[in-house]
Known about the structure:
The chain is mainly beta and 129 residues long. It has strands spanning 4-7, 10-13, 18-24, 33-39, 46-52, 58-60, 68-73, 78-83, 92-99, 118-119, 123-128.
Amino acid sequence: QVQLVESGGGLVQAGDSLRLSCAASKRIDSTYTMGWFRQAPGKEREFVAAINWSSGSTSYTDSVKGRFTISRDNTKNTLYLQMNTLKPEDTAVYYCAADRRSFWYAGVSPADGGRYDYWGQGTQVTVSS
């Protein structure tokens, strides 16, 4: 079992930046895929970004490319999401997730939320216009 705890959310204005953190309760093995997802009120959960814990390879949804950066600190077992140039449409609860399997395990995209084994409780990000 891995517990994931997100932090860093808040209320900001459009154009501002935030950095989310996700601390894992135990060492993240090199085989893991870690991801960020978000869910806005009345909408389905959507993929934001994912990272191969070992290689650092990343994947992003189109709407955040060039603005968000996913990264990790292997020594701290912590996942990050640097969010720049925030927009009101980025408002959502942001969740981190962990999958014990490799980035493209069995051909399944890291954007597929159904593959993830562990989820955090979420952190609210609100962007005002």
